[in-house]
Every structure is written in structure tokens, then in C-alpha cells.
């Protein structure tokens, strides 16, 4: 065959190869999109606005002109998560459509799922076998699903709800609502990219996670140090690891500055008092080990330990890909080991010293990504072991079909859970007064509300005097929040008409949400605007 003939053959083959690559690309893209949708449905979301969303959406909505939230006291305090607030603001300005926030959560859920799949594939080669990949996804989605969470909480207790995908101290990556901590999924994506030898992008992902939630700074710092050490070990050259470290330092500088500005203080005594309020009064369930340490913590430690054992033996079986390179299992072993040891050591130091500054650094937050990563590795090992010992490859069609059916069932249960959660929220006792205020609010109005009525701001768009769930983080603002909480609590526990008028005049609220049996509901200066079976909306008028 002449050179010209060979050239013609190559030219004829190139379009066919390109077409094959496109088909593979499209197939993978469809797989990722469908997998993300099914996982997000199976995982389930709580309805807007639930739990922490009432705090973290506030600044963004206030800037976007949502209702009159720009007049709210808390909305005018220092924002601890400005990047997340900017995302909320831009989203609401561009497309004021609530389902957008559910879509954001679904995308983040997909990043978590396929980052875990990617890591498991690097260790176990799941991508080379469709049955293994489908079985892995079915098991992992089932372990993380709303259905299993419900059964765990129902029969084992609420502490067991997020056993397989949550960290300790009630902290987790996804949770069930879009909030800054949800962007911790980029920590898992970072690990996957680093294992794929994309160190620069791995650091970018760390910066994304810390930009949205600064409490991931400790995780990002440890992972960056590990990336640098592993890179140096493989290259025996300081240039590449130093470039990673310098890039991370430059990128994290604005985040560090904002964190110091937010959590810093004007005096040691004020800062110390504010930290004490946060740790012992507002978030002891996150910050005090005695509050969150239970059997589930031990179970999660076992998950991490078992993953390390599996990686240790996988390291002995895995051939090195290139001379001088560490095995993927070796890298991942260290990426799990040292953060786990760091978290345990710092937790022990905090327990022994009772240091509130260390408590607010949440060293145990590293568990939020260590646990799901460990569970995913254990799942991958179980899948491979099952195929090897039970020769499941002979039943590949059945494995794929049953795995697909299981995922669809998990998704259906998740949809049911989401619908039930929405119905429960709509049935809350305060819905009547919130709907009235939403329709009738005016500029310049501020509402005194029961401390547990945490959804009021975002459901109505009306400013409130104070509530317990949402908090500031600047020291002086924390103390002001505590003062307002104490005043509101005393008022709702027992008060008289004169106290209501004095509070309204001094504290600046114009309206009050009062239980129907509250004695101040009979005050002449409390003008009834709306009432249902449980609450009334009152306008406070000055005495004549």
C-alpha cells in the first residue's frame, strides 16, 4: 500500500472515530443527567424555606429587593457567607422563581454522586463493568436515600437519620436544603480531580467550597497540604507543590479576610462573651462534644477505619501506573488518614481544654466529607467482592435491571417524602398569619414574633424584631441578638399591656404576632388586624 493509500484510509477512519467519541460523550452525558435527577429525587429536599435557609437566604433576598427585608435588623448585620448571598441575590433578580433553588441543590447532589463514583472507579475500576457500576450506584443511592433516613429515624431515633452520608455533630454536606454547607461537595470533587492528576483544578474546587462556607477552611488547608506533600513525593521537585500552595493561599486570602472581619471583635471581653453565647446558648448541638457524642459517632468512626483498612490492602494489589507515582489507593489512604487523625486530635484538645475558639472552628466538621467518602469506598469494595465471590457477571442483565428498578423505587419514595414534607409545612399553625402578613405588609413595619416562628421572614418578606434560629456572627451583633431574644422570651412568657407599649416604643417594632390566649391581646393599644384559631396579628398604636 502506497503512502497516498494509507493517507486516504486514515482520513476515512477519522470521521468514524470522531462519531464514536461523540456517541460515547452523549451517552455519558445522558447517564450523568439521568443519574443526577434520580439521586436528587431519592435524596429528597425539604420545602423552601426550611431550617438554616431562613438565615442564609436573608442577606441575598434583602439585596434583591424581596419584600421589605432590607429593613430587617439581622439583614443589616455583617454577612458571614457573602458569596452564597450573592448567588441568591443574582438568582432572584434574574429569575425570581423558587424552583431554581431546588435545581441548584440537585446539581450539587449530582456533583457529590459522580465524584464518589469517579473515586471508586479509580480504585475498583467500576467504569469497566456496567453491572458493577449500576449496582454500586443503586447501593449508594439507597444508603443516602430519604427512605432509609426515614426508617433509621423511625426505628433507631433521629440521631441515626444521616448515618451513612452525614458527619458528626449534626453537620453534613448535603443535608436536605440548599445552604452554604452544601457546597462542601466540591471537597469531594477536589479529591477526585487530584487523584486524576489535575492539581490546579483540585485547588480551585477547594476555594469554591471555602468561598461559599468558610468553616471548610480547615478541610481545605489540610487537603492542600496533602496535595503538596503527595505532589512533591512524586515529582521530587518543589516547583509544582509550591505552585499549588501559593495558588491556594492567594485564592483563600479574601475568604480569610472576610472571616476575620466577621468573627473578629473590638475587645477580648466582648468577643469572649459572644463566643460563649454561640457555643453554650445557640449552637451547643454543633459545638459541645458532650451534646453530640453518641453511638452514631462510633459507627461513623468505624466506617472511616474500615475504609482505611480496605485501601491499605488495595494498595498491595494495585500496580503502580508510572514509575515514581504513588498508587491511587495510597494517595487516598493518606487523604483520609491524616484529616481523620487531625479531627480526632483537635476534638480531644477541645474537650480537654473547653476552648470556645477551637469549638467554633468545628474540627469535627471534617467528618462531613470523610464519612460519605468512606461509605462509598466500602460500597465499591462490597460490589467487587460480590462479583468475585458470587460470579454475578453471569447475571449482568439481571443486575443492571434490578439496580435500575431499585433506583427508581428510591426516587419514588423520595418524591413521596418531599410531598409529605411540603404538606406538613403548609399545615403549620402559623401559616394563617404568615399568609395575611405576606399579602398586607407595608414599608416601615417590623413584627414581634414568637421566637420559634423561624420561617416568618422569608415566607412573608416582612422584617422581624428577632427570632431564635437565625443569628449574626459579629461579636457585638451576637450580644444584641441575645438581648433581643431574652426580651422577646420574657414578653411571651408573661407581660402586661404597659410593657407591650414600652417595648414597641423602645425597640422599634410596629406589629406583634400574639397567641390568642396571650393577655396583651386584650390591650386597647393592640389593634387586631387578623386572627385564626391560634394567633392574631396586631398593630401597636400609641396611647392617646
What does this entry look like structurally?
- This protein is mostly helical.
- Helices cover 67% and strands 3% of the residues.
- The protein contains 23 helices and four strands.
- The protein has helices at residues 3-43, 53-56, 58-64, 82-94, 99-124, 130-144, 146-156, 185-195, 199-212, 217-235, 239-263, 268-282, 284-287, 289-292, 295-317, 328-353, 356-361, 367-390, 396-426, 431-440, 456-460, 475-493, 497-507, and strands at 447-448, 511-515, 526-531, 535-540.
- Strands 1-2-4-3 form a four-stranded mixed β-sheet.
- The longest helix has 41 residues, at 3-43.
- The relative contact order is 0.12.
- The model has no long low-confidence stretch (mean pLDDT 92).
* Sequence stretches where pLDDT stays below 50 over 5 or more residues: none
How many beta-strand runs? 4
Number of helices in the DSSP assignment: 23
Q: How do the SSEs run, as a string of H and E?
A: HHHHHHHHHHHHHHHHHHHHEHHHEEE
**Binned strand content:** under 5%
Overall 3D form: globular
Main structural class? mainly alpha
* Alpha carbon gyration radius: 27 Å
- Could you give a short account of the major beta sheet? 4 strands, mixed
- The average pLDDT value, as a whole number, equals 92
Sequence of strands across the biggest β-sheet:
1-2-4-3
**Helical coverage, percent range:** 55-70%
N- to C-terminal distance: 108 Å
